[in-house]
Design brief:
75% of the residues lie in helices and 0% in strands. The chain is an all-alpha fold. Helix 1 packs parallel to helix 3 (46-67). The mean pLDDT is 87.
Length: 135
């Protein structure tokens, strides 16, 4: 097995991206955890960036699951699970079928969409409207 030959600029960006992800996972990042793969994809292929982040995220999630054991909501899980499964399926297909630059474009669009949503609070306003209409 050979060590990958990444560009020199990748390493400081990867360190920063992993640090930001860790801060976001601890609750202080205000939704900035999704920036690691798009940042790293500037220097390397997105599937490689996702492959680097996956074990790190899994390790972080083990600690999160342990911290919140017994405090989860089955009602919320039933609502979230279908969308999660659909997203994972579409993402796996996209990573396998699309060229690297198309994946970079999609990652950029998703990151910008999430940032704009956070900034303009679109989903919060939609949820508030749905709650007042239902109740």
């Amino acid at each position: 097995m050979t060590i990958p030959d990444f560009p020199l600029g990748f390493y400081p960006v990867a360190i920063l991206a992993i640090l930001i992800t860790g801060i976001a996972k601890s609750g202080f990042g205000a939704g900035s955890g999704g920036v690691a793969v798009p940042l790293m994809s500037i220097f390397i292929a997105p599937p490689e960036a996702a492959g680097i982040m996956l074990p790190i995220l899994c390790a972080m999630d083990l600690f999160g699951v342990h911290a919140y054991r017994g405090k989860w909501s089955s009602a919320h899980l039933r609502v979230l699970l279908p969308g999660a499964i659909a997203g994972i399926t579409v993402g796996a297909f996209a990573f396998g079928a699309l060229p690297v630059n198309a994946i970079r474009l999609l990652l950029g669009l998703i990151a910008v969409t999430f940032a704009l949503n956070r900034w303009f609070r679109v989903t919060e306003r939609l949820a508030a409207r749905a709650a007042t209409a239902a109740g």
